[in-house]
Structure formats: C-alpha cells, structure tokens
Design goal:
Length: about 260
C-alpha cells in the first residue's frame, strides 16, 4: 500500500522530499570551517613609512620658537642668533659683512672717544658716522673680496700657505686699505688733496709699523682655523681694538703742508 503523496515509477516507490522550514541542514564541516576561519588572526595593518627627521634651517628663529618648516637651530637663544647670522651670510654675504663692519667701527670709535674725552667734552657723532660709513661702504665689501681672492689663490690651510697669505696681506692689502682709510676720513672732513697727502706722509708709515706688531697673529688664526665665509667676521672682531687705534690716528689734527720755497 502506497503512502499518500507517493507514486510508483518503474517499480520504485518514490517519496516526496520534505523541505524544512528552517532551510537545509548544515554540513558537519561547516562548523569546523567557520571555527577555523574565525580563529585566524586578523590581517596586519601595514605600518606607515618612517617620518624623516626635519632638516635644520640655516636661518633658524632668533626671535621665537622655530616653526616646523624651518626646524630648530638650537635650544638656546645663542644658537638661534648664530644660526640667524649664518643664514644671512649665505643669503646676502656682502650686505651682512658690510653691516657687521659698520657696527664694529661704530662701537670702536665710540670706545676710542670715551678713552680720550675730557670731563667737559662730548661725543663727536659726525666722527662716529664717518667711521660707520667707512665700515659699511669700504671695509666690509673689501674684506669680502680680499678673503675670497686670497683663499682661491692659496686654497690650502697648511702653515706654508698660511704664511704666504699673511705676507701678502701685510705687504699689499694693509698699506692699500690704510691709505684708503686716511684719505676717506680726511676727505669727509674737507681736507684738500695736498692736506691728505701730507697726512699720509705723517701717519701712514707709523700705522703700518704698528700693524706689523698686531695683525700677523690675528691673520694666522684667521687664515689657519676659520672658514672663508666667516673670516671677515673674525677679522672685524680682531679689528675692534685696532680700529680704536686708527680712529684715534684719524682724529689727529691736520698735517702741515710743505710749501715749496719760491725761487
């Protein structure tokens, strides 16, 4: 007797397939597969590339904390000022050296006047302005050109080349720049050509002799141990004491002009 809903087909009794309302029964491997997959560790997230260290800016920040763009030049204010000055030397070398020379000549002339002023005398600001203008217009640019020229002529820093630089400096640059100094200062004071020549005859040789006692040691240190771009700064620093002396020499009264006897 056939069951309800069944039918014969070729001698076989076919029964209808009952589908569960809850869907097909899960495979025995499904639980194992699900557990195996869920037990896998999550894929690792790739690490971000390392951040390169910030480059130090040569300019730095002399008046406040450095920004991320420029970087930190130094922890202290001194390092910031040095970095700021070196940055100016790289960006505007001639202008920076000219301003530096003007500041040093100003300070040296004021010091020279303070040493020689009487109790009732006052500072001669016109004299100080003459010295400052000489430092800005002549001393700063000439030192820049001279040190670059001599470093290309003798690029090595051994003792022999250093002595050569010293000798040429004292034999060539020294007499020329001292002559220019006395002539420039005398011309701004209204002296005539004859009076300027008389002043050079009186003051130039003693000044050169005094320089031979002072500058060789300064030049040796400058040429031997100081980089070329900083040599004008070091030379101007050495020239502070020297400038006190030559500004005093420049302030002396006019030299007497020799008058040729009439025939």
């Amino acid at each position: 007797m056939a069951t309800a809903g069944a039918f014969h087909a070729g001698g076989f009794l076919l029964l209808p397939v009952r589908r569960s309302l809850r869907g097909p029964s899960p495979s025995p491997w499904s639980h194992f597969r699900t557990h195996f997959i869920s037990s896998k560790p999550p894929p690792s997230t790739p690490l971000p590339p390392p951040v390169p260290p910030a480059r130090l800016s040569p300019v730095g920040s002399a008046f406040g904390p450095p920004s991320r763009k420029t970087g930190a030049v130094g922890a202290g204010a001194g390092a910031g000022v040095v970095g700021w000055y070196l940055g100016l030397l790289d960006a505007r070398p001639v202008l920076t050296k000219s301003v530096t020379a003007a500041v040093i000549f100003t300070a040296a002339d004021v010091s020279s006047q303070m040493l020689t002023l009487g109790p009732e005398d006052s500072l001669d600001f016109l004299r100080t302005m003459r010295m400052a203008s000489y430092g800005f217009l002549i001393s700063g640019p000439s030192l820049h050109l001279w040190f670059n020229f001599i470093s290309k002529l003798f690029p090595k820093k051994d003792v022999v080349n250093t002595l050569k630089k010293m000798f040429i400096g004292q034999a060539v640059y020294g007499p020329i720049i001292n002559s220019v100094f006395f002539s420039y200062n005398a011309g701004l004071q209204g002296e005539t050509v004859a009076e300027i020549i008389a002043r050079l005859k009186r003051d130039l040789v003693p000044t050169i002799k005094s320089g031979l006692l002072y500058w060789p040691t300064c030049d040796f240190i400058t040429f031997k141990f100081v980089p070329v771009h900083l040599q004008p700064l070091v030379s101007n620093s050495f020239s502070f004491l020297w400038t006190i002396y030559i500004t005093y020499m420049a302030s002396l009264k006019k030299a007497d002009v020799e008058v040729a006897p009439s025939t």
